[in-house]
Structures are given as C-alpha cells and as structure tokens.
Design a protein that fits this description.
CATH superfamily of the domain at 72-343: Spore Coat Polysaccharide Biosynthesis Protein SpsA, Chain A
Strand order of the largest sheet: 1-4-3-2-5-8-7-11-6
Number of strands: 13
Number of helices: 16
Shape: globular
Structural class: alpha/beta
Helix content: 55-70%
Order of helices and strands: EHHEHEHEHEEHEHEHHEEHEHHHHEEHH
Distance between the termini: 87 Å
Radius of gyration: 25 Å
Largest sheet: 9 strands, mixed
Length: 528
C-alpha cells in the first residue's frame, strides 16, 4: 500500500529554555531561600558530626555519601566532556555532510502501535511525515499492530495529510500478542525484503512524536562512522495525568540525559530506547537479533526458564553489546512521549518502577557476566554499580533511623537536613539537563531513589514476574494456583524477607543497638 503525506509539522512543545529563560530571578530566589533555610536549620540544631557517640553513624554515612557523590561528579564531568567537546564535533561533521547534499538511499521506520488515542497517533504520523519530507527521499513505514482499527487510523491519516512524499506503508499483522512479537515479525519482513547491511532503520513507538531535525541529526553519523551500529536519542514526556507524575518523569529524564552523555563518551550506552533509536541493519536482521526480540529468556534457579515480556530495548542493547559494536547518544535529536495515565498515578508509577527495575536486573546480570573485556571497563562497571546502588540507598536511611533510636530525634532531624541539602545540590545539576527548573525535583529525587532501591530488591527474587499495564495489561510469571507456583512464590517471599532482615541486622549490629554475642558465649550457651 502506497500513500502520500502533506505539509504538516509538529512544533516541539519542550524546546529547552536557556539562560535567564530558565534561571529566572524568581527561580534563583527560591533556590537561595531554600538553601538559606537549610543552613539556618543546621546552625540551630545540635551538631552530631564530632560527637563520639555518633561517629559510627557519621563515618559510614559520610563514606557512602562521598562514594556516591563522587560517582555523580564523575558522570557530570564525563557528560560535560561529551556534551561540550566530543558531540559538537560529531554534530558539526554530520551537519556539514547533510548540507553538502548527502542523503540516505531510503528511510526505513519500524513502528509498533497498540490502541493509542487518535490524537496521539495523528501527532506521531505528522511528526514522522515532516521528517521524511525534509529528507526528501523515499521511505517505508513498517507498522506492527494487532488490530484493524489502529492500522486504518494510521493509514487514513497518512492519506489525509499529504500528496508530496513517497511513503510506503507496510502493515505486518501480528499473530500473537505482545510488542516483542510485532517487532520480530517486522524484522523478518525486512530480512525477506533484502535490506542491505548498511541500510539504516529507525525503531520507534507509536506514542512518540518526533521533534524537527531528528533524522537529519542521526542519519549522517552512520555515513561518517562505519563502526557505528546504533544510537539512541533524547526523550521528553507530556503526562496527561497527575502533575506530580510529570515532575517525577521530568526528573528521571534529566538523570537520563546526564547518564547517557557520560556513557556515550565510552562509545556505548546502557539502553537503546524503544521510543526512538536508529540502527545499522547489519545485526538487526540477523537470526540472533530477531530471536532475542521474540523469544528472549532467562534460565533462573528458582523460576526456571522464562521469557521476557517487556524490555525489547534492553534485548536489542544486549545483542549489540555482546557483539562488541559501537553505540552512541544524540542529545539534540529528540521527541515527546505522550503518556496518558488512566486510573491511579501512584499505581502506574509503581508498575513502571517494577517493569524498569526488572528489565535492568534481568539484562544487567548477563551483561556483567560478559566481563570487562567485551566492553569498555567503565560501561561494565556502570552495570555493576546499578546493582550496588540499591543497597547503599537503603542502608543510609536505615542507619539514620537506628541513629535516632540510639541518640534521639535530633539525629534524625540532622539527617533530614542533610538529605534536603544534598538533594538540592544534586537537583541543581539536574536542572542543567532539564527543560525547566522544577523544585519538586528535590523530593521526587529522594523518593525515587528509595522506592527504586526497594523495588529492585523485591524484584531481585521475582525476575519472572512481569506486567505491562499499557500493553493490554499483559502478565507473565508464576500465574495460577498450583503447588509449584505457590512454593516458588513462598520461597521468593522468604528470600525477600531474609534479604531485608540481613540488611537491617547489619545496621543494628553496626550501630550497636544490639551487641553480637562472642564465640565463648555461644559455646557456653550451646553446651551448658
């Protein structure tokens, strides 16, 4: 089916503010007042830093804090080098190549959709058509779907909005549920169509609206660097739901921009987002890549062999990571995800954390097993650090509570001030990477860290348990009421309880709220 598209454009609603547009006098005053209140509270409350009784708490919290903040500083420094030195050179060379008249032979877009709202699908089509028109080359949209209504909506809008672009819409109807199946069927269709190893393919979601210039900024990078096999792009989010959820996701995407630029300095990234990433076709039409999309699995000692429900972007990343190919991040190519929150925003947040954390744990474990020889050491250590950070994030607040039980409420108040001050300093760093200054980052950052760490520990023993609410409420992992399933769930609950108990015990023993018996006492008790 061949359709055409017209002159329509999508205006970027999240164009980043700069200078005094972002750092307005009002925002500067709010930050100054906040920091002043923190310093006044520090001056008025008792100081436990040099107290002999508090040294066990202060030392370990200080060591953990120094470690984590130096790690942040390291990412910030690396992100600055990539954003100010490395990427501008890449960007200028790509712009010069595009300006000289170079164009890709063909634009291939792999897109999946599932029951999106009409206005979202139409905005996605308009943004995509604008990019294809600006490139001025033929394009094929490979649409993976499961329902006729979605297909007709996109096809009709492509016909409606134009007559001046050479766009072929190829619809691949999936025969099984799930986004992974849709992607795999598209890739098999691409393979049969004879895509060459140097053809470039965009992977995108059906709720992601491209901002102007995305293709122009991404495609020339592949022509300039034959070793580049994948890149991922910047993301914004427009939440149609609670305002606090908008702040939370804005904060997470600011963290993502900082981390992605840091990772890209090592010619790798930690995820190739399904929102919008671009691939050289060399690997994506291979049997290995396609099988990882449609039937990626993990062999777990408790849950046995189970398939991955979500995390197709992590599977893509792992396949390329295993093949040792170059990946990068393009910070000025972007788009907006339109996130419609139906029902409870809090439940949606927890479900997202469980899905993201589960994907990270399932894929991070096998990435670490590849070893630092298969990737730059920094990237390998980032995978290790993701698993360490969840423990340090839980240890500090538990130690603060133990300190309050031993020394009084003033110690807990001092810890709260410490958190308030440090999260503001971290938020100031994130403001650099955010579209706007939002003081809600302060509390969303800390709550996100605590919840994320707790969810990771919970999911560590439930890697088979998966749920994808916005993909038809799909579920996978120990469904049913048979004896084996119940025993596995009971074992997972027992291990979760033991994990938190051991962490709590370590805190209690370290803080000397409870004194561990010596061996002589143990022997005398055992043989008396």
């Amino acid at each position: 089916m061949t359709v055409t598209a017209s002159n329509s454009s999508f205006v970027d609603p999240t164009a980043p503010l700069t200078g005094l547009q972002k750092w307005t006098p009002e925002k500067q005053l709010q930050i100054a007042i906040y920091l002043t209140c923190c310093f006044i509270a520090m001056a008025m409350l008792p100081n436990y830093i040099w107290d002999q009784q508090a040294r066990e708490f202060v030392y370990v919290m200080g060591v953990i804090g120094i470690w984590r903040y130096l790690w942040w500083a390291n990412h910030w420094l690396r992100a600055g080098i990539y954003g100010k030195v490395t990427y501008p050179k890449m960007r200028d060379r790509a712009a010069a190549l595009w300006g000289s008249g170079w164009r890709p032979r063909h634009i291939h877009v792999q897109m999946t959709t599932f029951r999106e709202h009409r206005y979202i699908s139409e905005a996605v089509v308009r943004g995509l058509v604008t990019e294809i028109r600006d490139a001025g080359v033929p394009a094929t949209i490979w649409l993976g779907s499961s329902e006729l209504e979605d297909e007709q909506l996109i096809a009709n809008h492509l016909k409606l909005i134009g007559n001046d672009c050479d766009i072929t819409l190829r619809i691949i109807r999936q025969n099984q549920p799930g986004k992974r199946v849709a992607i795999a069927l598209i890739l098999r269709a691409m393979s049969r169509a004879g895509l060459g190893k140097d053809d470039i393919v965009c992977f995108m979601d059906g709720d992601f609206v491209l901002h102007p210039g995305a293709i122009r900024k991404c495609y020339p990078l592949f022509a300039l660097d034959p070793d580049l096999h994948a890149l991922t792009t910047d993301e914004h989010v427009d939440v149609r739901g609670p305002q606090w959820m908008q702040s939370w996701l804005d904060m997470r995407f600011a963290q993502r921009r900082l981390a992605m630029q840091s990772h890209a300095l090592s010619n790798r990234v930690l995820t190739l987002t399904g929102r919008f990433s671009v691939f050289r076709a060399t690997h994506i039409v291979s049997h290995e890549f396609i099988r990882l999309q449609e039937a990626d699995f993990l062999d777990h000692w408790l849950w046995g062999k189970f398939r991955f429900l979500s995390g197709d972007d992590k599977s893509s990343w792992y396949c390329l990571l295993r093949n040792g190919v170059k990946m990068t991040y393009v910070p000025d190519a972007s788009g907006t995800t339109i996130e419609v929150v139906d029902g409870s925003g809090r439940q949606r947040m927890v479900e997202n954390l469980r899905r993201w954390s589960g994907n990270m744990l399932r894929n991070g474990q096998r990435a670490i097993q590849l070893g630092p020889r298969r990737m730059p050491f920094f990237i390998w250590w980032c995978c290790v650090d993701q698993r360490l950070a969840m423990w340090t994030m839980l240890f500090s607040p538990m130690l603060a509570i133990a300190g309050a039980l031993k020394l009084g409420f003033a110690f807990l108040a001092a810890y709260i001030i410490f958190v308030a001050l440090t999260r503001m300093l971290l938020s100031i760093v994130l403001f650099i990477y955010a579209s706007k200054i939002d003081l809600n980052f302060i509390w969303t950052l800390y709550v996100n860290q605590i919840l994320n760490a707790g969810v990771k520990v919970y999911m560590m023993w439930r890697l088979a348990k998966q749920k994808w609410a916005n993909r038809g409420n799909q579920k996978q992992g120990f469904q049913g009421a048979n004896f084996v399933v119940q025993m596995r769930e009971a074992m997972a609950s027992f291990l979760t309880l033991i994990t938190f108990f051991c962490l709590l015990l370590a805190v209690v023993l370290y803080s000397k709220l409870m004194i561990a018996p010596n061996w002589s006492f143990v022997f005398s008790f055992a043989f008396s």
